[in-house]
Automatic annotation (TrEMBL):
SUPFAM superfamilies according to UniProt: GlnB-like (SSF54913)
Species assigned in the record: Caldovatus aquaticus
InterPro entries: DUF2007, N-reg_PII-like_a/b
Signal peptide: none
Source taxonomy: Bacteria, Pseudomonadati, Pseudomonadota, Alphaproteobacteria, Acetobacterales
Protein name as it appears in the record: DUF2007 domain-containing protein
Length: 74
């Protein structure tokens, strides 16, 4: 698994996951349960991860949507 995004914003996280799913890339949200336990105060941001083989494609999708900087590692 490779982490392609880290955010404490649940709306952005949902948007990023939808972008990846629409592109046919499976993804999982890591740390969702710890965020719920800590009361969603933002101390533990959630991570969006994809299979290692899909990491490059996932970053390309997020970059094209303007959600990753152009100079972010591929």
């Amino acid at each position: 698994m490779r982490v392609v995004a880290v955010t404490g914003d649940p709306v952005r996280l949902s948007f990023l996951a939808a972008l990846l799913r629409d592109a046919g890339i499976g993804c999982v949200v890591l740390d969702a349960h710890i965020a719920a336990v800590e009361g969603n105060i933002g101390a533990f941001p959630r991570r969006l991860a994809v299979a290692a083989r899909d990491a490059g494609a996932a970053r390309a999708v997020l970059r094209e949507a303007g959600e990753l900087p152009r100079d972010a590692p591929a």
